[in-house]
Design goal:
The chain has about 240 residues and is an all-alpha fold. It has 10 helices and 2 strands; from the N terminus they run H-H-H-H-H-E-E-H-H-H-H-H. Helix 3 packs across helix 5.
Amino acid sequence: MLTAIISAVTSVLVVLVTYSLNSYREAKLKEKRDYERVVSTYLNPLRLSLVENYFRLSEILARVSESDRKHEALLYVDNAEEVSEKSSKWFNNHGCYLISSCYITARLFYYLDKVRIDLTYLKLSQKDDTELISQVTILSRFFRQGYGIYYLLQPSIGNDIYLASEQRLMTYREFCQLLQNPEARVWFDRLLNFYIEMGKGEQLKRSEDILSAIQNMSLFLDKLAGGGNSIQERLEIEGISSF
């Protein structure tokens, strides 16, 4: 009788332990998949956008730090209003450097706002949550420094290039066509003037601060995503040791 009871209890314990182990594995697997979704949906697009902006801003700062302190490729217009008067050919020629610079920064504003809004869904640790929102806030503050791109304009610019019906960001061509419309372009004037000012060698401290904030955020996201140094890898691909 005792043997039968011990056998029955053992069987129950084995079932319970097996169930607990399977539940634990399933929970860990779900947690891993959820985090991989966060990385692919939020962190990696933002990492790529940070790298693109770092590379472009570094390139501009390196040029304007030379003796003439100007970057002529950003100065084919004197102000944002002139952009709407330009032909499609101009956007593919003289205006390409200015407008593409604006385009990659507009994309960055979109990804920053996406992370800010959906932060509660990212399922990061409380410490990482706090650090991420802090990094986003610092970067946003530097962009609006020195009458740059105002706080509420940044997410507005990002969302204005998002095509909700197609669930994608505008292409460069679509962005150019948007700017040819004066009524639409006016919402991007601060962004356009931001780069025109850089081209003139103005507000360089602001740009240097932005560059530093981008680098800090990129390193933080690299750690969260479990990847390498995104900025350094891009520089190596471009054959550049450092700016």
